[in-house]
Amino acid sequence: MGFDDGLILHLEALVHSLDKNTDTPIDLYIIYASLTAESISRVKFINDKLEAVTLILRPIPKESRQFIENINMDKARLPIGTYFRIIVPEVLTDLERVIYLDTDMVVNASLTPLWQTPLEGNFIGACEDRLVFYHRRVNAESVLFGKQGERYFNAGMMLMDLKLMRQYSTSFYSAQLALDTADVIKYADQDVQNLYFYGANKQIDLTYNYGLEYVQYTDRPLSEVAIIHYYGWKKPWMNMVTETFMHPSRRPAMHLYRQYHNEMKAILGDNPDVISVILAADQAQSGEFERCFEGFLTQTYTNLELLIVTAKGLTSDLQTYLKTIKPYYPNIKVVTGTMAQAVKQSQGSYLYFFNLDDLLSEKTALAQLVAACQQGVQVVYSGYQRLDLQKKVIYWQKHRSNEVRALSLAEHQKAATELTSLAGLLVTKDVAAEIVRQSGGITSAGLLKAATKAAFVDRDLWIQSFNKVRRETNA
Predict the structure, then answer these.
(1) Maximum mean pLDDT: which of 124-128, 139-143, 397-401
(2) Binning pLDDT at 50, 70 and 90, where does residue 83 land?
(3) How would you classify the pairing of strands 2-3 and 153-161?
């Protein structure tokens, strides 16, 4: 695996999926040009939590970097690290065969059959790219290979015969080809690999490099796919409503990635305290609730319990949505009753109140609020923008300082009077539980009056929807 500091956040899902689904011990070599001490420490920390997979950091020698460091990357608009695949034979000189994997993948089955695949004299084994699939569907020719483009492969997964590649000095010659063609190729080293190894690669079953386009247009179940590859610009850490549109058939693959990611975060203990997110659901309209859920499912703080509170019953489309995502996010529960009943059923150390028709605007929102609450604060809230659904206009407060400040006594009292909604409040469980015990209900004013210390994050962390056309909910 080629690696740099920018990929450290996306390592967890891949290594956990590999660790969880392997039937044999695996050495995973991470090759890199430079890494910060923080990144190296993080990799070692992750390695300590794995069972069958061993992470091995291998720096790229200066003489090997010289093969690729002069390649013009202007057209590709990618980091030079994408060319690390070319020099793998020169970096891992003690190995004869490897499976190369990109970081934006999850491994869903044993890779032993792939490892044992005979290459029959070819340098590499690889799977066809989505471009082949696209050209086949529209009856178009490959830009690089014309009618022979059926053999164009995706370089995110390659079974590599390093011994043979070193014998023929493929790193040197393919790097030279990259230098000569950098101004005309589009997909950086992938185009170079296809040009250099054309006719010298073995095509491997698509199950070992299954892109999202295939998920959308073929009927192969994800349970039968060994490697899911999230290539392209639509990534599983993106909000599938506000950041990009994701076809419904692709969404299970996105949720599966997040499941692996969240499981690894739990193993690492990155977010030890559970946040119980209490979502008021009765006013949410179709289309709004998924936008809201995506805001929570893409948070950097992943140790969440989601409690959907309804007095009237859930709409049929919300029921369907929850049934679809529940296998990937087991800590989703429906509470039929009041917010106070949800507080009683919550398991978190912190509670975060929200409306199912509003949305979080920052992926670090909950992390910022918890950080404030960990300073002895019992109630913390933030600034927010307002979205007029009828006019399609967003209103926001100018000149936010981004500071976290403890409220003065006067500010504390003022907030208890002015805040009329629970939405946007993060509170400690003990304060909320005591309010419910004493009064039988829960309000923002009650929480602020009971808290001995409150804080404000002077940053717009969420968006409140208003001017909504309400509809009756269906049980």
Answers:
(1) 124-128
(2) confident
(3) unpaired
In which element (H, E) is residue 336 found? strand 332-336
**Range 273-295 burial, b when 16+ CB lie within 10 A, else e:** ebbbbbbbbbebbeebbbbbbbb
Q: DSSP labels for 243-259? A: T----GGGHHHHHHHHH
Q: How many CA atoms lie within 13 A of 220 on its CB side?
A: 18
- Order across the sheet with 26-32: list the strands: 2-3, 26-32, 53-59
Name the nearest CA neighbour of 358 among 278, 418, 276. Answer: 278
b/e code 65-99 from CB counts within 10 Å (16+ = b): bebbeebebeebeeebbbbbbbbbbbbbeeeeebb
Cβ neighbours, 10 Å, residue 248: 9
291's enclosing H/E stretch is: helix 288-297
Phi, psi of 359 (to 5 degrees): -150, 145
DSSP string, 28-97: EEEEES---HHHHHHHHHHHHT-SSEEEEEEEPPHHHHTTTTT---TTTTS-GGGGGGGGHHHH-TT-SE
Q: How do residues 4-39 score in pLDDT, each as one tens digit?
A: 888 888 999 999 999 999 999 999 999 998 899 999
Task: Please name the residue that has the structure tokens 């295939």.
Answer: 214
Task: Quickly count: other Cβ atoms within 10 Å of residue 391's Cβ.
Answer: 9
For 338, residues 6+ apart whose C-beta sits below 8 A from its C-beta are 309, 311, 441
Q: Are 188 and 73 in contact (CB under 8 A)?
A: yes
Amino acid at 367: A
State pLDDT tens for residues 249-269: 899 999 999 999 999 999 999
First-to-last CA distance in the chain? Answer: 50
Give CA–CA dist 278/309, Å, rounded.
7
Rounded to whole angstroms, how far apart are CA atoms 106 and 17?
6
Residues 6+ apart with CB under 8 A from 208: 111, 114, 127, 157, 226, 227
Report in angstroms the alpha-carbon separations of 97 from 86, 102, 119, 159, 314.
14, 17, 11, 7, 54
